[in-house]
Amino acid sequence: MNAQTIFTLLGGLGIFLFAIELMGNSLKLLAGNRMKTFIEKTTNTPLKGIFVGMIVTILIQSSSATTALTVGLVRAGLMSLPQAIGVIMGANIGTTITAFLVGLKISEYSLLIVGIGAIMLFFFKKEIIKNLGSCLLGFGLLFFGLELMGDSMGVFAESDTAIRLFENLSHNPILGLLIGTLVTAVIQSSSAATGILQTLYAQGTITILACLPILIGSNIGTTVTALLSSVGGTVSAKRTAFIHVLFNLVGALIFMILLKPYSWVVGSIETNFLATIGASKEMTLAIAHMIFNLTTTLVLYWFINQMVKLACRVIKDDKKEFSYREILSQEELINESPVIALSFAKKAIIHMADLVTEFFDITTKYSFNRNDNDFNKAKEIEEHIDSLDVEIHDYLIEITSKEISDSDSKLISNYLNAIRDLERIGDHCMNIFEFFEERYNDDQNSLSPQGENDLKELYSLLKTMLDNAIQAFTTEDKKPALNVVESEDLVDSLEKKFRKRHILRLNSGECSINKVDNFFDILANLERIGDHLSNIALSIFDENFFSNEELQTSN
């Protein structure tokens, strides 16, 4: 095997892998962000998950990418473990489509397809045509790369080394299983490994009995991507990756035990059906691949609950509290899918909003009842909020470096504004804590009954606004958001009203003027909290919303 043959093989493999990546990325762009939403919304049962996994894998031409996407959704808390199992099963079935495409012998038209795709990509301005052209370009390059690999493998197959290797594989299925696993793990594509194997089988270089263990091993090797996707992830993400490995290992065990009956069935299909309709020999392995994944799915579908229990036993629950900081420090999720990363960022912001709610509640409590434990707790929460502000900000900025849509770019801008507003609310709560700390240290400066009632009224209104703002941000529901926007004017009005009341109390001598009379400062900070809540609520409205009659009428 000379250097030129090796170069041709490596070049063909490189083109094949690049083509799969290009075609998958182009199809994802054509599908847009609907891909993530489609998976998230339509996998409420394992059976639906199987069909969704099949469809998505057929579209993006990579079971590894679908599995990584699934791990990302589980990691972001957008999908449960049983749902993920269904998608993984479907992904394993969907990946067999590439093998069927190879079996169609499109390679003689590959350069024509490349040419058409290139023209659409470089000579048209419309985005959808460019993406379609990119997809066709990848489709043509896939078969061109496969043809180059086939030419080089044909030369290799005639060498004495290859002949001895393939003879050993025919008598040593375990060796074939290991080769299939290692090759797929290294090149990160079971489709590429299967394509090479189909070429060798079509050339008559290797027997069906030697092919099948390698084919089975390629299914084990493809689980490496899921394992890498789960590194640094949540417990559920690690369990998802574990189940993906378990699925393929159990399937491999079943078919290795039944290797001879398996090879007999595949051989019979080739002889009695494929040969009679003039199908290529590559189609034989495509069907063998389909049989493996369909049968494994049919068998293990009835054991989903047992697989979940086993995963929970092997990968124990993390005893420490779930750490958003740990996840936000990981970049893998952003690289796997910026859209999913954006969904996770939203969950992190909601977590930050929950901390702000807790902070506001203890601020309200401390305003009327001194408790040093509450003051210490407030400092801890403020530090946590400040840290999340920085980490979520950096995480969102990192997402902007990836290829995202205009709508996602606008969403990131809204999220950045939301974390700024939440952080500022935390600052105002801390200010109020410190103001009341000053008052408590001055025994002669307690709140008057009227002043206490005024603050309680303002706190109650802000609490309702806070709950509505978080609900609006979480659900993107305009109704609670509108309530917040409308209430903001009332906060301003009450703040002015309560200022005047306090001045009257000072003038009447009901309240004494001294160095720690910070009632106005407290009111000012509460009013600013209302402003920031209004900002959060406003972010979910369309740009032209406030020209609508609905808001004009409500005002």
- Biggest sheet descriptor: none
Shape: elongated
Care to count the β-strands?
0
Distance between the termini: 81 Å
Fraction of residues in helices?
A: over 70%
Spans of at least 5 consecutive residues with low confidence: 544-555
Number of helices: 26
Relative strand content:
under 5%
Order of helices and strands: HHHHHHHHHHHHHHHHHHHHHHHHHH
What is the radius of gyration? Answer: 31 Å
Structural class: mainly alpha
Number of structurally distinct domains: 2
- What is the arithmetic mean of pLDDT? 79
Descriptive key words:
elongated; disordered C terminus; 26 helices; mainly alpha; 555 residues
Protein model, in words:
- The protein is an all-alpha fold and 555 residues long.
- The chain has 2 domains: 312 residues, no CATH class; 230 residues, Up-down Bundle (Methane Monooxygenase Hydroxylase, Chain G, domain 1).
- The chain has 26 helices and no strands.
- The radius of gyration is 31 Å and the shape is elongated.
List the helices and strands and how they pair.
Blueprint: H1 3-31, H2 34-41, H3 46-60, H4 63-75, H5 81-94, H6 96-103, H7 110-123, H8 127-157, H9 160-171, H10 173-187, H11 190-202, H12 208-221, H13 224-230, H14 235-257, H15 259-274, H16 282-300, H17 304-314, H18 324-328, H19 332-336, H20 338-368, H21 372-400, H22 406-441, H23 449-475, H24 478-508, H25 519-538, H26 549-554
Helix pairs in contact: 1-8, 3-5, 4-5, 4-13, 4-14, 5-14, 5-16, 6-11, 6-16, 7-8, 8-11, 9-10, 10-12, 11-12, 11-16, 12-14, 12-15, 12-16, 13-14, 14-16, 14-17, 15-16, 20-21, 20-22, 20-23, 21-22, 22-25, 23-24, 23-25, 24-25
